[in-house]
Design goal:
Two copies of one chain form a homodimer. Chain A has about 220 residues and is of the alpha/beta class. Chain A folds into two domains: about 80 residues, Arc Repressor Mutant, subunit A, CATH 1.10.10.10; about 100 residues, 3-Layer(aba) Sandwich (Oxidized Rhodanese, domain 1). Helix content of chain A is about 55%, strand content about 15%. In chain A, the strands form two sheets. In chain A, strands 4-8-7-5-6 form a five-stranded parallel sheet. The longest helix of chain A is centred in the N-terminal third of the chain and has 19 residues. At the A-B interface, α1, α2, α5 and α6 of A face α1, α2, α5 and α6 of B. The structure holds a DNA duplex (30 and 30 nucleotides).
DNA sequence: TTAGTATTCAATTATTTTGTTGAATAGTTG
DNA sequence: CAACTATTCAACAAAATAATTGAATACTAA
């Protein structure tokens, strides 16, 4: 009797974790925080709901220990609490991208809307970098790069790319990445570069995927 | 505009997956199905709610593509749809066992209630099996063993153990496993064996954990 | 075809969740 | 200390969820 009760409590606690990301806005919050720390106000703007609502969502995430807070001056900064959260989200995405026809359809629509053609994965990048000279560029906003980036990547935020083309070599293949499969910045960068006769290609994996891969190998 | 809308739809679909396991009963269903296929009626008994409710929960899981069905005679058999579901659940548990104080407390209560003392992990098992002679026994019900088991494990369901002690050697270390960290059968087996002067120890990982580990290595 | 049975559907009720607005709070900074 | 401000709390309405019971369905098997 007390046995089943204990068991039920454990399932209850476990489902509290998944409950925390069972809401689209909270899932989006976690995804945004995976890239970089943010204040409540910033997050509220990004997910387009009121500050009070955002705060409530963040508290759900916090009570499930998925995010943590730190004060900085007047602001409270939210961040992902642990890399195991990244793994959790990554496995949800894996399942979603693989099994849910609706998501596959959405991603294909997204790609064709944006004229996203060829792309490589992290594994492809490693393989190619052994055979040819590659320049890896991170086209996310500079703050996100500073908060963490793939080894050997150079920061060239998308909005600076046009002005900084002279920094880039025509002899190397340029690989651009941003926030992952659903981010359009790297594709835009590649389109610009290709129109200027650079050898450029998009990588669909981002910093988070690289970080998780690093850990696997240790 | 259509960009954010697409993004929102993706988060909505992703959260549908986590929503599916954001309920204790459904989490338990997935956990039960991780061991073995079941009919609706069997599942209903195991989670102690009505058949109609169980059916409805199963349909939520099915629409999120976490489980799938197959007819067998009069019965409809539910099973986990894909190993990526096991990975998802495993990452939820990892996060839960690591970060949620409440779960840690519950597990410790559980262990002390059951007098569960020493236990080893799969990694420990591999290491020890190179140094000494080990007999690995699977004490789950025979059906679960038949549905899948750790390589080289011998099936001795807990309720048969007493009668089959003569099959077991006193020279080897006996390692018993069942369904994982929250399953008490292996602990009971070890207690019985130790009282009969066997060298016995419990392994906290189960078949699911082993299966996921196998895949990692390929 | 008919009887039988496992499962699903429908309708209902109690409970929980989401998002809003406006007030309260806590902590910083001058 | 006092003013300021980012964040959280409280109260509410609308919507969604979980579980039950009883009826309907879909399939099997004789």
């Amino acid at each position: 009797m007390s046995e089943t009760s204990l068991k039920e409590k454990v399932y209850q606690e476990l489902s509290r974790i998944t409950h925390a990301i069972s809401n689209p806005k909270r899932m989006e919050l976690i995804d945004i925080l995976s890239q970089k720390k943010h204040t409540v106000e910033e997050l509220s703007k990004k997910i387009s709901i009121s500050i009070a609502s955002t705060s409530q969502h963040l508290q759900v995430l916090k009570s499930a220990k998925l995010v943590e807070t730190k004060r900085n001056g007047n602001f409270i900064i939210y961040s992902i609490s642990d890399d195991s959260v990244l793994r959790l989200v990554s496995s949800v995405k894996e399942l979603g991208f693989r099994k849910i026809a609706e998501i596959e359809r959405l991603i294909n629509d997204f790609k064709s809307d944006k004229n996203i053609l060829e792309s490589i994965t992290l594994d492809d990048l490693f393989a190619r970098s052994k055979k040819e000279k590659i320049l890896l560029i991170d086209v996310r906003p500079a703050e996100e790069y500073e908060s963490g980036h793939i080894k050997d990547a150079v920061s060239i935020p998308l909005d600076q790319l046009k002005k900084r083309l002279n920094e880039l070599p025509k002899s190397k293949t340029i690989v651009a990445y941003c926030r992952g499969a659903l981010c359009v910045m790297a594709a835009d960068a590649v389109k610009l570069l290709q129109s200027k006769k650079f050898k450029a290609i998009r990588m669909e994996d981002g910093y988070v995927e690289w970080k998780l891969k690093q850990q696997e190998q240790n």
